[in-house]
Design brief:
By secondary structure, this protein is an alpha/beta fold. The chain is about 30% helix and about 25% strand. It has helices at about 40-50, 70-75, 95-105, 110-120, 140-150, 170-185, 195-200, 220-225, 230-235, and strands at about 1-10, 15-25, 30-35, 55-60, 65, 80, 155-160, 190-195, 205-210, 215-220, 245-250, 260, 265-270. A six-stranded mixed beta sheet has the order 6-7-8-3-9-10, with helices on both faces. Strands 2-1-4-5 form a four-stranded antiparallel beta sheet, with helices on one face. Strands 11-12-13 form a three-stranded antiparallel beta sheet. α3 (about 95-105) runs parallel beside α5 (about 140-150). The longest helix has 18 residues, at about 170-185. It is globular and about 55 Å long. Residues about 275-284 have low confidence and may be disordered. It binds adenosine-5'-triphosphate. Belongs to the ABC transporter superfamily. Keywords: ATP-binding, Nucleotide-binding, Transport. This is Osmoprotectant transport system ATP-binding protein. InterPro entries: AAA+_ATPase, ABC_transporter-like_ATP-bd, ABC_transporter-like_CS, P-loop_NTPase.
């Protein structure tokens, strides 16, 4: 569990990126932070692994304040995936994946063997292990980035717009793959994106931000889709443009469970008992 306690970040030029932010991010779930540019998502993410220090407040991982932990150890214990993949250009794919375990003292042969297994896990052919990053496509580079972040078997994975620079088809593939991996691994994933569709595809929990790290709404995709908190959220998720045609459907034989379905009848989520909003059917 990651807890932000009254966290504020004011940069040297007096920009307040995050103000008095408190929230708990559950373990073994994917929480997606979404919002327009400059609302403080990256700042929040980087305060978890101390790449940015809060001006005031605390960030706790399993009740331990990260400020009390050794920075280097903390960073090596948390996976981090960036939009630019962040791979070392002069190192081959397998060496990139094995870097952190080797730094942590794992024998090289063992780290490389585990690296090959990780390539399998993220859907990359082992034949690519000996290539340099520039010899891979953008989507393949991002897969290597994910493999590298998983190499030290971290409990927490921070992902900052990891699929932002690849084309929509590859992006959709990577999203499917990440969901599959997460079902298998159950990491605590914090994922930053501008893209609300991506957020709904990946998240157990979505936090939609306004500027200054202010939460516009937090909830499961189904809760947000079914009951946008205000006009800002409705506009952000496209509900105001009639872009989303969502309906509630009572599931037979399952008293209290309500499905949220789109205009084509495809389920997009489930509302737990007691969560159903007041509007009975048309949720536009
Ligand atoms: N080092 C810095 N010095 C001054 N201001 C900064 C610094 N880093 C970020 N900011 C400002 O803090 C605010 C939040 O930035 P942040 O990068 O967290 O937003 P974001 O939501 O991740 O944006 P984006 O989606 O564009 O990456 C912005 O106004 C940004 O300009």
């Amino acid at each position: 569990m990651i807890e932000f306690r009254a966290v504020t970040k004011r940069f040297a030029d007096d920009t307040v990126a995050v103000e008095d932010f408190s929230f708990v991010l559950p373990s073994h779930k994917t929480t997606v932070l979404v919002g327009s540019s400059g609302c403080g998502k990256t700042t929040l993410l980087r305060m978890i692994n101390r790449m940015i220090e809060p001006t005031s407040g605390q960030v706790l991982i399993d009740d331990v304040d990260v400020a009390t932990q050794d920075k280097v150890e903390l960073r090596r214990s948390i996976g981090y995936v960036l939009q630019s993949s962040g791979l070392l250009p002069h190192r081959k794919v397998l060496d990139n994946v094995a870097t952190v375990p080797v730094l942590k003292g794992v024998p090289k042969a063992e780290a490389r063997e585990r690296g090959l297994e990780l390539l399998d896990k993220v859907g990359l052919d082992r034949a690519l292990a000996g290539r340099y990053p520039r010899q891979l496509s953008g989507g393949q580079q991002q897969r290597v980035g994910v493999a590298r972040a998983l190499a030290s078997d971290p409990n927490i994975l921070l992902m900052d717009e990891p699929f932002g620079a690849v084309d929509p088809i590859v992006r959709a593939d990577l999203q499917v793959e990440l969901n599959r991996l997460q079902r298998e691994l159950g990491k605590t994933i914090i994922f930053v994106t501008h893209d609300i569709e991506e957020a709904f595809t990946l998240a157990d929990q979505v936090i939609i931000f306004k500027k200054g790290g202010v939460i516009a709404q937090a909830g499961t995709p189904a809760e947000i889709l079914a009951d946008p908190a205000d006009d800002f959220v409705a506009s952000f998720i496209g509900a105001d443009k009639g872009g989303r045609d969502l309906f509630l459907q009572q599931r037979e034989g399952d008293r209290g469970i309500t499905l949220v379905v789109d205009g084509g009848g495809r389920p997009v989520g489930v509302l737990e008992p007691g969560e159903a909003p007041h509007q009975p059917t048309d949720l536009r």
